[in-house]
Design goal:
With 211 residues, this protein is of the alpha/beta class. The protein is built from seven helices and eight strands. The chain folds into two domains: 112 residues, 2-Layer Sandwich (GMP Synthetase, Chain A, domain 3), CATH 3.30.300; 71 residues, Histidine-containing Protein, Chain: A (2-Layer Sandwich). This is Transporter.
Length: 211
């Protein structure tokens, strides 16, 4: 398959995996480092730059709305990919779960909401740390796989369940799923992909090479 052109692929991805594994420390990083990392990710992404920026905005607006509405009574992670929003985490009741989903659907420019929140006690800090490690391990294993680009698959882990998002072909999805499934600490893999044809993948990858 076509690879992203003019990028030191392994070094770039390893750096991004390292950054992604320590979100709690992001406030300690200079703004320039954060911006540079985001720029590198955007350049290699199959989404348009407009969709990438919109996804960042959707995540911010949704998190802010949920925080204002529910405060610390819920633990819900919001991940937007190509304007499709994945909700993961824990809520105290089925009613709250439905309300969380409604709030996400009300955000401007959201195409779809996939709610994977569960009713139960909020996850512990140690559980969240374990999930962060699992996410990093999956991403690291993606780097060396020759059947797809790690740039094209977003990884979210909640309570040992790995959710995979991205604009990918069926064969790329299968390859990514197999890598994630066989990674230590992964209990289950849930595919939340947006599927594209091989022809569309080649077209998008060619556009990436022109950036």
């Amino acid at each position: 398959m076509t690879r992203t052109a003019n990028l030191p692929r392994r070094k770039t991805l390893l750096a991004l995996v390292a950054l992604g594994s320590i979100p709690a420390l992001q406030g300690c990083f200079p703004a320039a480092v954060t911006v540079a990392g985001a720029g590198a990710v955007m350049i290699a992404d199959r989404r348009t730059s407009g969709a990438y920026v919109e996804d960042e905005g959707i995540e911010w607006r949704t998190r802010n709305r949920l925080r204002q509405r529910f405060g610390d009574s819920i633990n819900v992670a919001v991940t937007s990919y190509n304007r499709n929003v994945l909700l993961t985490g824990q809520v105290p009741s089925a009613q709250v779960a439905a309300e969380v989903e409604r709030e996400a659907r009300a955000i401007t420019n959201v195409n779809a909401v996939i709610s994977e929140v569960v009713v139960g006690g909020l996850s512990t800090l140690s559980s969240r740390a374990s999930d962060a490690v699992t996410t990093s391990q999956v991403k690291a294993r993606f780097i060396d796989d020759q059947n797809f680009s790690a740039h094209h698959v977003k990884v979210v882990t909640e309570a040992g369940t790995v959710f995979l998002m991205g604009l990918v072909t069926r064969s790329e999805a299968d390859a990514a799923t197999e890598v994630a499934r066989t990674t230590a600490g992964v209990r289950k893999v849930v595919r939340v992909f947006e599927y594209i044809s091989d022809e569309e993948a080649r077209r998008l990858d060619a556009r990436i090479g022109e950036r």
